[in-house]
Amino acid sequence: MQQQDVTARVSTAGVARKGEKYLVALRKPGSSIGESWEFPGGKQLESETPQETLKREYKEEFSVEIVVGDPLYTGYFENRNTHYRLEAFEVQLISDSFVLNEHQAIRWISLKDLKRLPMAFSDRSILQHLQKQEDKTAE
What we know:
Layout: E1 9-18, E2 21-27, E3 37-38, E4 41-43, H1 50-62, E5 66-79, E6 82-93, E7 103-110, H2 111-114, H3 121-138
Parallel strand pairs: 1-6
Antiparallel strand pairs: 1-2, 1-4, 2-3, 2-7, 5-6
């Protein structure tokens, strides 16, 4: 169990689901997670709550509005010598007329197929959590 790092920056991820499929997006090349699939989200600004961050990020990255639901997962990761606390939430799309401002593709995909995609390191832990939840439901 990792200790909570109060000095960690907060990164958020919004997990949208339609039936058995989850929304993921492929980052454009050029960043530390370029050309990786991710659950959309981003870094929290100082004055924001994680929920506000997700709303802003979905608006900036896709020009869509969302409703942020329940917390889904909290974990920790490091990127370029910076420690992050990752907070993932369930989200619902108000519309799905996506404009890809920072991504090269967007896809609704099952967990089974999602495991085959090259995902951002931070988002693999969310994927593992979703898989554990699905396995529990199947029992």
